[in-house]
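Reminder to self: tokens first, then the designed residues, so the page reads top to bottom the way the pipeline ran.
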């Protein structure tokens, strides 16, 4: 088995790994880069011009699947049902259009074959819903690709199950290190985030805005649970309602637009997107839970309103009376929290508080994970800190992007 990290050996985002045998060529993840990087070793055309027998997508973040738009539509792309649903939703609402892919849904711990490769997916705890790690076997070798994972979300039990009963005889572990050495977060777990939401809502000072990704289902669940416990109204938008609706086919425990204490704020751009995609009837369905600005103003001290840092937010606050003193619970990666937005909040008298927990494993959890799998080679990926791995882990082999390793 031969391994090449085309991108990700010393970078977070844009992950792309190639595995090949004499007869089969496999890609793991095919993502857009998160940062500007003069990565001359990543030659997209050279990668896609060769025969590809299959692509594994670990989860539905663009830095892991965003280049699928460039592949031949006949190539099978393997992913979880949740990842497929979120990619399908994203193409209706987001600028990056991933369309006409040959998506093949795979299940947790259900092995399947791509040519010479036997692949077993492992469901993991991550901020992306329904994320997978992969055990990949070929030519007598066993490789484990961690994907992005953590041990402090709502699915933390998956981490415990994996380290208590790990796959054996791992020749190579490709392990992410997005949060390596950065363990000073104020909120260590998803439960701590939920607790802080409850505290803010119970103050009843004014409306509270939640800046969070609608695709971060753990965070949506935390917000909803907080609203129930604080007797507050969780206001979502059509985009979020549609996501939750689609994911109900994967899990019946995901909150829905018509559940207690949930209301839907209609935005024209979202409504137009659904109509254009042929979902006009859904607008009538969501209308049963619609909330307008009159009701929002009347109950603003009992409202948690989901929004995002975009051009729509200034328009929303224009319609809210007495918005000065309102709270913003900023619950996204702090790389999105620009100085420009901080200044905007200050100019409007909005109190911004960073309330977030990482989608990635802490250093201690990475140590536990590596110790459980006991790989012959541990290779850093999805990290800016590859050089730090030997300090914390054994059997580390650091590769360069484009370097081939024979297992």
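Designed residues (407 positions):
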């Amino acid at each position: 088995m031969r391994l090449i990290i085309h991108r990700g050996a010393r970078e977070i985002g844009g992950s792309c790994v190639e595995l090949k045998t004499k007869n089969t060529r496999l890609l793991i993840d095919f993502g857009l880069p998160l940062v500007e990087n003069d990565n001359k070793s990543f030659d997209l055309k050279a990668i896609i011009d060769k025969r590809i027998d299959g692509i594994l997508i670990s989860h539905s973040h663009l830095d892991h699947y965003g280049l699928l738009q460039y592949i031949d539509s006949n190539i099978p792309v393997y992913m979880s049902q949740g990842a497929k649903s979120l990619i399908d939703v994203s193409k209706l609402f987001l600028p990056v259009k991933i369309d006409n892919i040959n998506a093949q849904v795979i299940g947790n711990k259900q092995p399947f074959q791509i040519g010479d490769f036997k692949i077993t997916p492992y469901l993991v705890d991550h901020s992306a819903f329904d994320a997978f790690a992969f055990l990949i076997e070929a030519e007598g070798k066993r490789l484990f690709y961690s994907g992005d994972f953590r041990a402090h979300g709502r699915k933390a039990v998956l981490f415990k199950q994996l380290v208590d009963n790990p796959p054996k005889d791992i020749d190579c572990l490709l392990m992410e290190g997005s949060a390596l050495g950065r363990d000073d977060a104020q909120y260590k777990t998803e439960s701590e985030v939920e607790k802080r939401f409850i505290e803010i809502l119970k103050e009843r000072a004014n409306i509270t805005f939640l800046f969070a990704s609608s695709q971060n289902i753990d965070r949506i669940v935390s917000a909803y649970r907080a609203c129930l416990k604080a007797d507050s109204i969780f206001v979502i938008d059509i985009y979020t309602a549609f996501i939750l609706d689609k994911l109900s086919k994967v899990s019946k425990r995901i909150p829905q637009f018509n559940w207690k204490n949930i209301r839907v704020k209609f935005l024209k751009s979202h409504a137009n997107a659904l109509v254009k995609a042929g979902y006009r009837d859904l607008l009538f369905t969501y209308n049963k839970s619609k909330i307008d600005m009159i009701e929002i103003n009347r109950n603003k001290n009992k409202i948690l309103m989901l929004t995002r840092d975009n051009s729509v937010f200034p328009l929303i606050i224009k319609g809210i009376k007495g918005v000065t003193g309102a709270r913003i619970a900023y619950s996204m990666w702090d790389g999105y929290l620009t100085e420009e937005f901080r200044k905007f909040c200050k100019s409007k008298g909005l109190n911004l508080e960073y309330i977030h927990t990482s989608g990635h494993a802490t250093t201690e959890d990475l140590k536990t994970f590596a110790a459980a799998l006991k790989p012959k080679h541990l290779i850093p990926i999805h990290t800016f800190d590859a050089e730090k791995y030997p300090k914390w882990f054994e059997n580390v082999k650091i590769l360069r992007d484009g370097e081939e390793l024979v297992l």
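The first strand starts at residue 2 and ends at 7.
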